[in-house]
Amino acid sequence: VQLVESGGGLVQPGGSLRLSCAASGGFLSYYVITWFRQAPGKQREGVSCISTSDGSTYYADSVKGRFTISRDGAKNTVYLQMNILKPEDTAVYYCAIDLDRAFCSSGMGRAGSMDYWGKGTQVTVSS
């Protein structure tokens, strides 16, 4: 299983970016894909997740209403559309797969429970 993130970059406050997470490898059952982020000196935190079973989603309060997660099953790719970006959104963004969960409408799993991780993509929000 391999996860590859892309789409990060430098953007001004109020701007937008779309991150992609391309997954390769065979999966025998439904699973949840979660976006995490980690800012310098801070713990990795969950941003949003989506279920490959029913498409249910969940967002952290800090990004609700600004970020949208979606999935293209045919391409095995998950997207994170980030709008109205703020300097506090600056972080390395990672996508991860949780094989033990099929739904995420009730919340995101802990970073420690993820089974596979991508290498991350840097997002910097600055004027």
What is the beta-strand fraction?
over 45%
Number of helices: 0
The residue-averaged pLDDT reads: 94
* Class of secondary structure makeup: mainly beta
Helical content class = under 10%
Order of helices and strands: EEEEEEEEEEE
State Rg: 14 Å
Number of strands: 11
Largest sheet: 7 strands, mixed
Uncertain ranges? none
Inertia-based shape: globular
Name the features:
127 residues; mainly beta; 7-stranded mixed beta sheet; 4-stranded antiparallel beta sheet
Task: Kindly describe this structure.
Helix content is 0%, strand content 47%. By secondary structure, it is mostly beta strands. The strands form two sheets. Strands 2, 4, 5, 6, 9, 10 and 11 form a seven-stranded mixed sheet that branches. A four-stranded antiparallel sheet has the order 1-3-8-7, with no helix packed on it. It is globular and about 45 Å long. The N and C termini lie far apart (37 Å). The mean pLDDT is 94.
